Amino acid sequence: MTKPKAQLIRGIGGIAGSFLVLNGMIGAGIFGLPAGVAARAGVLSPWLFVVAGLLIIMMVLAFAELGSYFKDSGGPALYSTTAFGPVVGFGTSWIYYVSRISSTAANAHVIATYLGEIGPGWAWFDMPAGHAVVVTVVLGGLTLINVLGVKDSIRTLALFTFFKMVPLLILIALGMQFVSPDVLFPEALPTIDDPGGTILLLFYAFIGFEAIVMTAGETKNPRRTIPLAMVKTVAAITVLYFLIVLVYVSVLPNELDSGATLADVASAIVGPWGAVVIALTAVFSIGGNLTGSVLSASRLSLSMAEQNLLPQWFGRIHPKYASPANSVMFFGGIALAVALSGTFEYLAIASTLTRMIVYSVSIAALPIIKKKADPEVAANAFKLPGGYTIPVIAIGLCIWIASHSKLESWIYTGGLLLVGLALFGIEKLLLRGDRPSG
After folding, report:
1. What is the signed CA dihedral for 234, 96, 142, 323, rounded to 10 degrees?
2. What is the CB-side half-sphere exposure of residue 127 using CA atoms within 13 A?
3. Residue (of 236, 289, 256, 205) closest to 265 by Cα position
4. Fewest CB atoms within 10 Å of the CB: 222, 296, 363, 420?
5. What separation in angstroms does the CA of 166 have from each of 152, 253, 280, 392, 415?
6. Dist. CA 98–CA 347, nearest whole Å
7. Mean pLDDT, to the nearest integer, of 286-303?
8. d(CA 348, CA 162)
9. What span, in angstroms and rounded, lies between the C-alpha atoms of 186 and 42?
10. What is the DSSP string of 9-77?
11. CB-based contact 87:239 (threshold 8 Å)
C-alpha cells in the first residue's frame, strides 16, 4: 500500500491570521518611530498616522482581493508567477525573499540591543559576544519551533502577541490622563519641513501586512479569512498607532525633537521601572515579528518550489510535523549566517524599496488573475468597490514611495535582481541539460 504524501494542515484561523498581520507590522519600529515623526510634525503626528493608515488600506484592500482568488501559500510569488510567468515570478520572489532575510537578521540584533538596555547587569547582551549568542538562540529556537509545525508556531506567536500588546495598552490607558483638547485638536499647526521623508517614516510602520497571504495553504477558508484578517487588523493597528503617538506627544510635549522613545514615556508616567517594562515589551514585540517572518518567508520558498522556480527540495513537507521543514531550516540557517556576518546592514538598505516593488507587481497582477480565474472562484472572490480605482491608487502610492528611495537602495535592489535572474537562468540551463535528447 502506497504511503500517502505528506501535506500541509490548515491550522490558521481568523484570530491566528490577525496575529500574523499584527506581528508582521508591529516589530521594533513603533518603539522609536514616534520620535522621528514628532520631530518633523509635532502635535500633528497622531493624525498623520491615521492618514498613513487610510492610504495603506488601499494596498491592503488590493491584497485582500488578490488573496481571495487563491488557497495555496506563496502570496507575491504565486500572484506574480500566475500573471506574468516564471521570470517575473522568480525575480519578484527572489528580491522579496532576500529582503525578508535581511530584516530578520537585523531584528534579531535589535533584540540583543533592547536586552542590553534593561539595566546595568544586562549590558553584556549589547556587546558583540552577547549579540552573537542572542541571534543564535533566537533564530535557532524559532527555526525549530517552525519545523515542529504551524500549530506550535501560532502558539508561540500568540504568546509574543500577548506580552507585546498588554504593556502597550496599559501605557495608553495610563497616558490618556495627559491628553488635553489642545493636543488632540491643536489650533496652531506646525509646518512640516520634510513631508516626503515624514510620509516614508509613517509608511515604514505599516509594511508587513502581507504576511498572512504567504500562509494561505495553511489557513482555514483562506479566501474569506485572509481578506477579513488583513483589513480588520490594519484598521485596528491604525487606531493603536494613533493612541500611542497621541500619548507620546501629550506626555513629552517639550521633548518632541529630543529623540525620546516610548521607554522615556513610560519612565515619565510610572518611573524608571516603566522603561524596563517597555524594553522587555520591545523584546517580545520583535520576537513576535521574527516568529511571523520565519513562518511566512519559509512558505515563499515552498511556493517557488511548487511552481518549479526552485528545486523540489524546498517543497518537501515533513511527514510527522506537516511543515515545509526544508524551507524553514534553509531560511533560518541563511538568516542566522547573514546576522552573524553583519552583511544584513547592506541588504537592509534596499528593504523598503524591495517591498514597494513586490507590492506593485502583485497588485498589477490582479486584472490578469481575475481574467484567468475559474468562474466559481471569481464568483466567490472578495470584490473591491469602484472596480480598479483602489488598486490603481495603491500602485500609485507604491511608485511614489519608491521614488523617494535613495540611489543606494536602487543600486542594491538592482544588483540583487541581477544576481537572482542569473541564478534562475543557470538553473534552467542545468535542467535543460538533464533532459534526454530526441
Report:
1. 100
2. 7
3. 256
4. 420
5. 22, 25, 12, 37, 42
6. 8
7. 93
8. 28
9. 10
10. ---B-HHHHHHHHHHHH-SSHHHHHHHHHHHHHGGGHHHHHHHHHHHHHHHHHHHHHHHTT--SS-THH
11. no
Burial status of residue 438 (CB atoms within 10 A of its CB: 0-12, 13-18, 19 or more): exposed
Distance CA 332, CA 339 (A): 10
What's the DSSP call for residue 438?
Answer: -
The amino acid occupying position 252 is: L
All cell numbers assigned to 253: 510635549
- Asked if residue 144 has pLDDT above 90, the reply is yes
Sequence-ordered list of residues with C-beta below 8 angstroms from that of 219, at least 6 positions apart, any chain: 10, 12, 13, 17, 212, 225, 226
Q: What grid cell was written down for 401?
A: 514611495
228 pLDDT more than 80? yes
The rounded distance, in Å, linking the Cα atoms of 332 and 101 is 9
Cα–Cα nearest to 330, from 346, 316, 343, 319: 316
Contact yes or no for 40/197 (Cβ under 8 A): yes
Give the chain's end-to-end CA distance (angstroms, integer): 35
C-alpha cell at 162: 500577548
Strands (DSSP E) contained in 317-377 are none
Q: What is the CA radius of gyration of the chain?
A: 22
DSSP-assigned beta bridge partners for residue 219: 12
**How far is 353 from 405, CA to CA, in rounded Å?**
6
Distance, in Å, from the CA atom of 203 to the CA atom of 30, rounded to the nearest integer, reads 11
How confident is the model over 9-32, as pLDDT tens digits? 888 899 999 999 999 999 877 887
Alpha-carbon gap, residue 230 to 19, rounded angstroms: 10
Q: How far is CA 190 from CA 44, 194, 251, in A?
A: 7, 12, 18
**Cα 412 vs. chain centroid, distance in angstroms?**
20
Rounded to two decimals, the pTM is: 0.89
* pLDDT tens digits along 357-414: 999 999 999 999 999 988 888 888 888 888 899 999 999 999 988 888 888 888 888 8
CA distances from 273 to 5, 167, 206, 246 (A): 53, 12, 29, 22
Question: Which residues does 204 contact at the CB level (< 8 Å), separation at least 6?
Answer: 29, 33, 352
Helices 128-147 and 150-175: crossing angle in degrees, nearest 10, is 120
Helix 14-25 vs helix 222-251: angle between axes, to the nearest 10 degrees?
40
Tally of CB atoms within 10 A around 320? 9
Arithmetic mean of pLDDT over the chain: 88
- Strand-pairing partners, residue 12, are 219
